[in-house]
Design goal:
This protein is an alpha+beta fold. Helix content is 41%, strand content 24%. The protein is globular.
């Protein structure tokens, strides 16, 4: 076990600096966690010089869309030679449902980790202390806390100097590509809206 009081040497210091610089914005991660609880927020994101506006959602939305798309593809596909109708139907259904199963597997693993962490909780809703939980469990916990992508629904994409926008029903964005973000301002009537370059604002529904 390494001495926690010993000074860092070269490689350890380099690794520490890389990890600190690559850490995602904790506030954005907090909004992503709210999306898991169906507490969706409308946000603006600056991504590779473009502005993307939409509602923070959860991966289930994209999984459902992929399931529908795969179902449509299977309807146009021909049964491969050597497979019976029953074998082809089983293979097709397994492929169609794969995106939803991926989400369900992730949620099951997350729930199992939450249960395994219960003995390390202090009882006051504070997170477990890293010095007490096993190393592998802490690695899993960090993986669940830090998302690589965020999901937006009803998104629009625009860029400076471009009068038109592109609408996207569901969009996945790599968090590393987000250079800036902001919440849609709340209006007096309970709606939220975002205006760009003096144009017509995009109005969202009731805040609740």
């Amino acid at each position: 076990m390494a001495d926690e009081d010993a000074p860092l040497h070269g490689p350890e210091r380099d690794l520490m600096r890389l990890a600190a610089r690559d850490a995602p914005d904790e506030f954005l991660m907090a909004l992503q966690a709210m999306a898991k609880q169906r507490l969706h927020e409308q946000v603006g994101l600056l991504v590779n010089g473009m502005i993307v506006i939409g509602e923070l959602g959860d991966p289930e939305v994209l999984a459902s869309l992929l399931q529908v798309r795969r179902g449509a593809q299977i309807e146009r596909a021909e049964r491969p030679d050597g497979l019976t109708d029953a074998e082809w139907d089983e293979l097709a259904q397994d492929w169609i449902s794969e995106p939803v199963r991926m989400v369900e597997d992730f949620q099951a693993r997350e729930a199992a980790l939450d249960e395994a962490l219960e003995p390390y909780l202090s009882g006051d809703d504070s997170p477990p202390r890293s010095r007490e939980i096993p190393g592998e469990m802490e690695r899993q916990l960090e993986g669940f806390r830090t998302s690589s992508h965020i999901t937006l629904t009803n998104a629009t994409i625009t860029a400076a100097g471009v009068n038109a926008t592109t609408s996207v029903p569901v969009m996945r964005i790599a968090i590393r590509q987000v250079a800036g973000w902001w919440l849609a301002p709340l209006n007096e009537d309970g709606t939220t809206s975002i205006s760009l370059w003096g144009g017509e604002p995009r109005i969202f529904g009731d805040a609740d």
